[in-house]
């Protein structure tokens, strides 16, 4: 185990989020098209925090490894009613290759199951992002679609694979 701990995302975490979003390797297969300036990072951070307002349980967390900030794992709400959440994780390159992504993703999925048992989780992964594909498959996410050529970066068009982790059965938890 990697001695991970999780803190609900807050404005106090701006610096590590700005480091994530300004790193070309971290954002290579994400919706963040180019490295963010501090001002752009602030806007992204404000949008994430705004999406957390009104939720009974936070769904986006700063991840620490042995006390050091290493990334983020989150499930922002998609629409109203807390029935569907996105699912993402991003980590600083110095923490890659240690199983932290898989461990944090599994923690987040379990947390979401406990807090929102009737909610579905939805994730996208670019076809070349082998690490994310392995994590999603290992966690039981089901393939549910392909957007052919849906990801474009530096003149290269790649497919986006969509996945879903269905909601727990009705009556299996309290929401």
From TrEMBL:
It holds the Pfam family Acetyltransf_3. Residues 16-159 form the N-acetyltransferase domain. Transmembrane segments: none annotated. SUPFAM superfamilies: Acyl-CoA N-acyltransferases (Nat). PANTHER family: GNAT FAMILY, PUTATIVE (AFU_ORTHOLOGUE AFUA_3G00765)-RELATED-RELATED. This is GNAT family N-acetyltransferase. It comes from Yanshouia hominis.
């Amino acid at each position: 185990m990697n001695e991970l701990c999780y803190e609900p995302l807050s404005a106090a975490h701006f610096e590590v989020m700005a480091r994530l979003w300004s790193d070309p390797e971290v954002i290579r297969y994400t919706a963040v098209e180019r490295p963010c300036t501090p001002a752009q990072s602030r806007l992204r951070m404000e949008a994430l925090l705004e999406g957390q307002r009104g939720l009974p349980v936070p769904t986006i967390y700063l991840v620490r490894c042995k006390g050091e900030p290493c990334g983020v794992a989150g499930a922002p709400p998609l629409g109203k009613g807390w029935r569907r959440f996105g699912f993402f994780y991003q980590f600083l390159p110095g923490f890659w290759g240690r199983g932290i992504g898989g461990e944090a993703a599994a923690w987040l999925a379990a947390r979401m199951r406990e807090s929102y048992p009737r909610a579905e989780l939805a994730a996208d992964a670019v076809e070349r992002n082998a690490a994310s594909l392995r994590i999603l498959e290992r966690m039981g996410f089901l393939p549910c679609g392909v957007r052919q050529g849906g990801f474009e970066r530096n003149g290269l068009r790649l497919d986006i694979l969509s996945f879903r982790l269905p909601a727990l059965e009705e009556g299996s938890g309290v929401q």
